[in-house]
Amino acid sequence: MRFRFEPILNLRKHHEDSCRTQLYKEETKLIKIQEEINAWNSNKEHQQKKVKAMSVGIIKPDILACSSECLEYIRQKQIETKNRKIVQEEQRNIARELLIDARKEKKTMEKLKEQFIAREEKRMMDLEQKKIDEVAVNQFHRDKG
User: Is 135 inside a domain boundary?
Assistant: First the structure.
């Protein structure tokens, strides 16, 4: 009693594992991008506080201009990072869909295997019952004769 599609089932299990690993990698990348966004937000707040502090008292235009350029750079980096996050979210969603499909394929093969095992067990039980019936008939004829 050997399930002839066992190699395919094993391949599908392996494929599911690799899809799960890929989803984990994509989610990790997304977490890192979110941490980067948080860092840029923190930098922006810090820089805004510095600009606000420099705006009181004696104002030095060159330092204020430099700080404004720094703020603009941070804003640009925030936009770039948010765009990367959108792309990464899409990559994560694709990896999630691939994992779902891989699980469905594996489940299908597992159900086929379960059905095969059930059929084989029934066939074996039928053979066993046939042998028991044969022994009973032979015993009956021996006792009668």
Answer: no
